[in-house]
Specification:
single chain, 338 residues, alpha+beta, four-stranded antiparallel β-sheet, 43% helix, globular
Length: 338
């Protein structure tokens, strides 16, 4: 294996599309399923269903299933009520204004909407916005507030510059003490802890526009295209782990997380290079319940309500000088909330 590649199994998954329709006051009805190569057929059927008066809401779900039995990942590929052209732009502008954000923020979003829908980096943000809006329609009064952070990420000059330069934020999670955990809980008990870890990480990723790259056995590797989103996502993960651990009957899920920002080589749905290696090594330096980030990840997160504190300079294999590392104060928000 080359010097710039981390040894990790390649994750294989299957992609499909499932169409759901719901009448006013009714339950969701599954209307069909298509394979990845039939995406255009699935979209055409979704649009046709949206034109049928009997359906109030239509959703086309992108489902990623794994042969190893892990929980499927689902994202909204298309949903009803997304207008086009001037009507769509007007709706976006009014939504932005309604959440207390300046209308001018809608300009960059609307002008490049159709172009950005074809770009995987931008599409993740658009899909997150759609999901937030649909959650609001379904009765989640707090979901609409997500649009502010989504638009700030989309219009951030620093984030846009980083994306244009091919900068990614690489995250590694790691279950601490996994060998001892297996000895104490047995294979079945340890696997349940792994499932809890996987579920929390995978729930936080799409909400902050992150993408899982692979499972490393004791953790997950993921990438983001916005550093503030990456840090916020890991904060949510640790907060959720803490909530689980506060219940005495639950086996403890102790996780450390590392983040690094830089350029990486993307190949066959994986990422390689020194940026990836440094992220993994930063994760290794953290203790249970900690989030460690490099200076590059911290600098790209400035201007947001995120607290960092110096964790020290660490010697890293393959790097001549010690690397400054910073800890994310993820529990500050929980303490403030009481």
């Amino acid at each position: 294996m080359g010097a710039n590649k981390l040894a990790a199994p390649k994750i294989v998954y299957k992609t499909s599309f499932v169409l759901y329709c719901r009448a006013s006051g009714g339950d969701w009805v599954e209307k069909g399923e298509w394979q990845e190569a039939q995406e255009q057929d699935a979209l055409a059927t979704a649009h046709a269903s949206d034109d049928e008066s009997q359906w109030q809401t239509v959703r086309l779900i992108n489902v990623r299933t794994y042969p190893d039995g892990r929980a499927p990942q689902e994202t909204i590929a298309w949903m009803t009520g997304i207008p086009k052209g001037a009507e769509r732009n007007g709706m976006i502008t009014e939504a932005i204004f309604a959440i207390g954000t300046k209308k001018k923020m809608a300009g960059p979003f609307c002008e490049k909407f159709e172009e950005d829908e074809k770009d995987s980096k931008s599409k993740s943000m658009i899909d997150a916005g759609r999901s937030a809006m649909q959650q609001f329609i379904d009765g989640d009064a707090q979901a609409f507030g997500q649009l502010r952070s989504i638009l700030e990420a989309f219009t951030s000059n620093k984030a846009a510059k980083a994306s244009a330069q091919g900068v990614v934020i690489v995250m590694f999670t790691d279950l601490v003490g996994s060998t001892k955990m297996t000895e104490e809980l047995g294979d079945l008990g340890a696997q349940q802890v792994v499932r809890t870890h996987n579920a929390i990480v995978r729930n936080a990723l799409p909400a902050y526009h992150g993408r899982e790259v692979k499972h490393t056995g004791d953790g997950i590797m993921a990438v983001y295209y916005n550093a503030a989103n990456a840090v916020a996502s890991t904060m949510v993960m640790q907060q959720e782990f803490a909530k689980k651990n506060s219940i005495p009957s639950n086996p403890p899920v102790r996780v450390r997380i590392g983040l690094n920002a830089g350029q990486a080589v993307e190949e066959e749905n994986d990422y390689f290079g020194t940026t990836v290696q440094l992220s993994a090594r930063v994760c290794d330096k953290a203790n249970a319940d900690q989030i460690f980030v490099t200076q590059s990840a911290r600098d790209l997160s400035t201007g947001h309500s995120i607290q960092f504190k110096p964790a020290g300079d660490f010697a890293m294999k393959g790097i001549f000088q010690p690397v400054p590392v910073f800890e994310v104060a993820w529990n500050a928000q929980m303490q403030a909330a009481g």
